[in-house]
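Session log. Operator J.P. requested a structure for one protein chain; no other inputs attached. Running the standard single-chain path with token output.
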Amino acid sequence: MASNVAEEADEESKPSEESISRWQMLFGYSHLEAIEQIKTQNRDYTRQPLSDDHWNLVRSTMEAKGFDRGAYEHWLKLGRPSNGLHQGKGDIDASSPLSDDLFLVKLEGYLSTPQRLQEVAKLTEKPHTDVGISDHGDTLFCRIDRNVRRSVEKWAVMQTPKFNPAFIPVNLAKKDLSPDSLYPTLGLDSTLPQYRVSASIRKLGANVSQSAFSRELPFCPVLPDECPVWYFFYGTLAEPDRLTSVLSLSEAEYPVLVPALVSGGLIKSWQGKYRALVDGLESDAVHGSAYKVTSEDREMALRIYETKHYEVVRCTIVMASQTVQGLTFRFTGPL
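Structure written below.
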């Protein structure tokens, strides 16, 4: 009798095939390993549950990568992927920290406002604020880098009673557009001298204009903080439904993608299933879609979706009705 009850309980707790397949894909587990890992997580009643505020903030981005809430919670628990984990495009690899690592810190307790965070971390400017929306109300988060996180952690341990700030790691594609050269540009060795502006233009720094570029360079590139800006998509982001999910667009904002091409690039295969744009010859062309990104927040969502395996680079986007200077995501990892 007891044995039958145990078997029935075990059968009821068995994960769905959809969940098993998801964990196999994301973490590289075998079928049996995925079942055991899911069961172990579900039975761990002592674990700290993922808050609604946290999940609602990252949900659209993580679901677009193949995660559900449980899988994302498992990844956070792992913290650092082991050698056995599958490194797919949707994974966030915490084992290789970048200098521009990004985190979200929840504004609560002793750290309840952006101004307080600025004071604690001795920042020269007030940090950018994001809003997490849930059934329990809105929650504020601030974007910080790894150095600011360390400062906050050092400050937090000195507080009485003990205060534990909530940090959410954010993995994103690097964006480092030079203000005085064409670097980085798809298919172009833009570090060469002919692709840099003169010293007199460099002195302008952030005040440099496109007209200043046009006097000395072959074309006027996208400026570092230019927005709105055209983006060229060639993979999953060229699917309207996927782009809608990544950018959290409303029905009225359903994206209009324009057929387009860029030159100087090639499409290679990464891990046998992902399309990866890399540098090619000037005569090489890649067909895809163009889309105008209208805000910095939406651009950030794209960078988070692509992950640090890609970087934002300049490119010339050719459409039937016009040719524009824009941006795209170039693959940076090994093929």
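Operator note: The first helix runs from residue 2 to 12.
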